[in-house]
Design brief:
The structure holds 2 protein chains of 2 kinds. Chain A is mainly β. Chain A contains no helices and 12 strands. Chain A has strands spanning 3-5, 10-14, 19-21, 24-26, 33-39, 46-52, 60-61, 64-69, 74-79, 88-95, 100-102, 106-111. The N and C termini of chain A lie far apart (41 Å). Chain B is 0% helix and 51% strand. In chain B, a hairpin with a 2-residue loop joins strand 5 (42-51) and strand 6. The interface between A and B is medium-sized, with 25 and 24 residues.
Chain lengths: 112, 113
Amino acid sequence: AQTVTQSQPEMSVQEAETVTLSCTYDTSESDYYLFWYKQPPSRQMILVIRQEAYKQQNATENRFSVNFQKAAKSFSLKISDSQLGDAAMYFCAYNAGNMLTFGGGTRLMVKP
Amino acid sequence: DAEITQSPRHKITETGRQVTLACHQTWNHNNMFWYRQDLGHGLRLIHYSYGVQDTNKGEVSDGYSVSRSNTEDLPLTLESAASSQTSVYFCASSAGSLGTEAFFGQGTRLTVV
């Protein structure tokens, strides 16, 4: 079975600084996707960024980028120029097939 | 706009009672999922469906059941609520292709007393 691990239960960052959230996963599949979801206090799950395993280029969405290391099964999220609105739970998720497998989440706090 | 809605948003029930949480989506997605969210565990899959009349057990299915009689709805039933089922429940849907985005409802906070 696939597993997703987020080893940092909590992280904090100063506003305007950069922070990196870690995620590792275990799979025997060769074709899969990885996602980062954001969950603000409203509980809404918001897709931040996705990465296809076959693409070597790291995905980027504005201030959000990933460092995808396929051999190491590592998928970290970098948030640049952190804003107060980035404060949330962040979940890493794995997809091979029709369902998502989630990590335990990282709570990000942003200090003004 | 298409959406996925859950009801109720909050519910308190007593141990041993049967409870049903509703999930309705207007995306016309074939795939629907139920997850529970608990601190430190992220979201864990309870049940899922790939289409009408199709249901499958997920990682934490004991004590839960679902039925899929149409494309739009996947109600989740707790047969006999237990305190261990106190959690936040999320319904999600997706089009089904690998890598497509899953859309989530707003969640239902269930408290079993």
